[in-house]
Backbone:
């Protein structure tokens, strides 16, 4: 007979990673609310590959003065103080054990609804780190789907992602309009998991949860621009790489300047490589959107021409390996001085590399 535990949920990503979300004493309601937003079901049995545990810390204690990891039984044993690294987020302390893939999040004892929703947004960071390690990346973007085919609609704040999602007509459906976690499966395909629009959660205007456990295969990336008429402009691999990288940095930077500088450098180089792989694997376009046009028909047109000269600027998935190398080389040459290249990841980073890493992962 399977044991079903309240406050214990699973996040199953298409890259093969299964996360367990574990509520320890005092966090059950908080974790249940997070699971409801993400559309999760109670984990029935089995051992997840990664574990995210939640505990409470004294309300008046500051994150930087919190002491060691709380001792007590965990699924990995009774001595969690060995091999752990600490990362500081606003109001949250995270302890990570890379060897066991276990992260403990220490939450304040009390908080307003606004503060708790912000904590929920931030505690997804370990999922982003692991996805980066496996070839994926989070994006500040919308996810639209038709017939099991997904496309990314990316753009700066105010570019029209939410508006475009509201305007879509069947059979198109918007699965998320602000955040997407892109992962890569064992076959090398990119799939997208929808993530919550936290402003909508705060306002209570979402009628159904975001189903993070339902990945959608990706077939294209479209960068939105407002225009008088709908239109498409194919992007080369270097340009697409830089735009994808910037979209991911917007997500990571919004979580706060909290991460160890050395890890920032490694993650920034990995992020750049993953962005180049994504740009080389999927057709990318600038999608010009008018106020009254049927822009989704332009998307359909682009998907139908996926193997045509319209997208020859950056190779399609069958040539992704060679294409990603080309995208990386071109994007590296075009990147600003803030870009941290893979060469900066060996040994301890220099002071200038640390400063660049901090700037790259800071909001802006």
Residues:
């Amino acid at each position: 007979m399977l044991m079903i535990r309240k406050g214990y949920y699973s996040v199953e990503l298409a890259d093969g990673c299964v996360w367990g979300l574990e509520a320890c004493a005092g966090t059950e309601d908080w974790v249940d609310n997070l699971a409801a937003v993400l559309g999760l079901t109670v984990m029935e049995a089995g051992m997840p590959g990664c574990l995210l545990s939640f505990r409470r810390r004294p309300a008046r204690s500051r994150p930087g003065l919190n002491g060691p990891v709380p001792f007590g039984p965990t699924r990995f044993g009774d001595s969690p103080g060995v091999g752990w690294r600490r990362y500081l987020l606003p109001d949250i302390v995270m302890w990570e054990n890379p060897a066991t893939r276990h992260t403990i999040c220490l939450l304040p004892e009390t908080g307003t609804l606004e503060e708790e929703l912000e904590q929920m947004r931030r505690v997804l960071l370990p999922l982003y780190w692991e996805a980066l390690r496996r070839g994926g990346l989070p994006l500040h973007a919308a996810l639209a789907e038709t017939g099991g085919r997904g496309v990314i609609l990316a753009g700066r704040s105010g570019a029209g992602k939410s508006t475009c999602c509201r305007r879509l007509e069947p059979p198109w459906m918007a699965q998320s309009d602000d955040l997407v976690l892109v992962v890569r499966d064992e076959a090398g395909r990119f799939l997208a998991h929808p993530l919550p629009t936290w402003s909508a959660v705060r306002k209570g205007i979402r009628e159904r949860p975001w189903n993070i456990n339902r990945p959608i295969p990706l077939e294209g990336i479209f960068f939105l621009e407002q225009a008088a008429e709908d239109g498409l402009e194919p992007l080369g691999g270097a340009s697409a790489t830089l735009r994808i990288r910037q979209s991911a940095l917007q997500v990571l930077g919004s979580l706060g300047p909290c991460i160890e500088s050395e890890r920032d450098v490694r993650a920034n180089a990995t992020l750049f490589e993953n962005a180049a792989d994504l740009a080389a694997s999927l057709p990318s376009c600038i999608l010009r959107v008018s106020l009254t046009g049927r822009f989704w028909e332009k998307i359909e047109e682009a998907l139908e021409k996926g193997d045509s000269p319209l997208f020859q600027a950056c190779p399609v998935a069958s040539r992704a390996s060679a294409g990603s190398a080309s995208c990386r080389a071109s994007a590296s040459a075009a990147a600003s001085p803030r870009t941290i290249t893979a060469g900066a990841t060996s040994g301890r980073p220099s002071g200038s590399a640390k400063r660049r890493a901090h700037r790259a992962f800071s909001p802006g």
Notes: The longest strand covers residues 216-226. The radius of gyration is 21 Å. The chain has ten helices and 14 strands.
